[in-house]
Design brief:
The complex is a heterodimer of chains A (about 100) and B (about 250). Chain A has a domain of about 55 residues: Roll (Ubiquitin-like (UB roll)), CATH 3.10.20. Chain A has a three-stranded antiparallel sheet with strand order 2-1-3. Chain A contains two helices and three strands, in the order ββαβα. Helices cover about 20% and strands about 25% of the residues of chain A. Chain A is α+β, with helices and mostly antiparallel strands and about 100 residues long. Chain B is an all-alpha fold and about 250 residues long. Chain B has a single domain, classed as Ferritin, core subunit, four-helix bundle (Ferritin, Up-down Bundle), CATH 1.20.1260.10. In chain B, about 60% of the residues lie in helices and about 0% in strands. Chain B is built from nine helices and no strands. The longest helix of chain B is centred in the N-terminal third of the chain and has 29 residues. Chain B is globular and about 55 Å long. The model of chain B has no long low-confidence stretch (mean pLDDT about 95). Classes of the chains: A alpha+beta (about 100), B mainly alpha (about 250). The interface between A and B is medium-sized, with 14 and 13 residues.
Chain lengths: ~100, ~250
């Protein structure tokens, strides 16, 4: 089947204990209903999830790898953004 | 060669073998798509559905073994009975055909099987009731998946509509047999099968209406599967299915 008839969908699954849906892969399907079923059949065979989202891959706007330097490189030198300098009182426990 | 086993068929054993054989034979038909499905996603879906059915068959063969009490196990029933000893509905053994044949048959059978197992979950036999409740959930997904496809094929392109309608015409003679009554001595253990018909008719009518397909008139419905009178395709299926086990008894891998 052609890409045009069965476009790509990105699949997100929320695991049993998980709080958020995580990207797990993609499926080809003719429409949203079939994409959801395909995602169920391909990605939840071993009880991986309790909820599925499918999103048309075409609906995702992605950053250009060529822009990587200007988008991400500058943060490398801004160590003050990492909150590693604070002393956390023991009473707070795990954060 | 491993010899064919005789089975002491009480009405209960016969009922259990019939339902197990439905699931095993149809599950095998679905497994025939492995490596041939139109897209990978559908291949996995068909294999999943086939495995659900083969899993149901295993549980039902185990019940049959207990009811028969002759020391047989699920492999004996699956691999060491001859064609005439198989009790499956004819609809289950029809060839997989094209994708429309497979999906139309699957939807019509699954709607029936979901209703049957739903009703059987009220069985006075506790183990059977427990199994039936689980099987009904599996069938509900088969209904959803096959039904989704039937609508898309029937109400799709001119080509897909023509093929879906042709598939429906081919399978129509094998529908009535699903509603034949079980042995009256099993009342309470086994649901009243003919009583499932109106609900099935309604659900199928709604599905076919949405799919823009029409059920043809069938002047001569086919039956006989439960009595071991099968079409020629079952023998071919069993030859493929049983050959290894019969040639190499107890083979493992």
């Amino acid at each position: 089947m052609s890409e045009e008839r069965t476009p790509l969908w990105e699949v997100f699954i929320r695991a049993r204990q998980g709080l958020a849906h995580r990207h797990v892969g993609s499926v080809h399907a003719a429409d949203a209903t079939l994409a959801l079923q395909a995602a169920r059949d391909v990605y939840t065979r071993r009880g991986e999830g309790l909820s599925i989202w499918v999103v048309p891959s075409a609906a995702i706007t992605a950053s250009d790898p060529a822009d990587r330097d200007e988008l991400f490189e500058p943060t490398a030198s801004k160590i003050y953004r990492h909150p590693t300098f604070y002393d956390i009182p023991d009473d707070v426990g795990h954060m | 060669m491993s010899a064919t086993i005789p089975v002491a068929e009480t009405p209960l054993v016969r009922f259990l073998l019939g339902r197990a054989d439905d699931a095993l034979i149809l599950g095998h038909r679905l497994s025939e798509w492995t490596g041939h499905a139109p897209i990978l996603e559908e291949e996995l879906a068909l294999a999943n559905i086939g495995l659900d059915l083969i899993g149901q068959a295993r549980a039902l063969y185990a019940f049959a073994a207990e009811a028969e009490g002759a020391g047989h196990d699920e492999d004996d029933y699956a691999y060491l009975r001859d064609e005439g000893q198989f009790r499956n509905l004819l609809i289950a053994e029809r060839p997989r055909g094209d994708f429309a044949d497979t999906m139309v048959r699957q939807a019509l059978y699954a709607i029936y099987a979901e209703m049957f197992w739903q009703a059987a979950s009220q069985s006075t036999q506790r183990e059977l009731a427990g199994f039936a409740a689980k099987a009904a959930k599996e069938m509900a997904y088969h209904v959803r998946h096959a039904g989704t496809w039937v609508v898309r094929l029937g109400d799709g392109t001119a080509e897909s509509h023509a093929r879906a309608q042709a598939a429906l015409d081919r399978i129509a003679p094998y529908l009535d047999e699903m509603f034949d009554a079980e042995d009256p001595s099993l009342a309470g253990i086994v649901p009243d099968v003919p009583a499932l018909r109106p609900g099935w008719d309604g659900a199928v009518r709604a599905l076919l209406e949405e799919a823009k397909l029409s059920l043809p008139d069938v002047p001569f419905p086919q039956r006989g599967g439960r009595a071991g009178r099968h079409g020629e395709t079952l023998g071919h299926l069993l030859a493929t299915f049983q050959h290894l086990h019969r040639s190499h008894p107890g083979a493992t891998w």
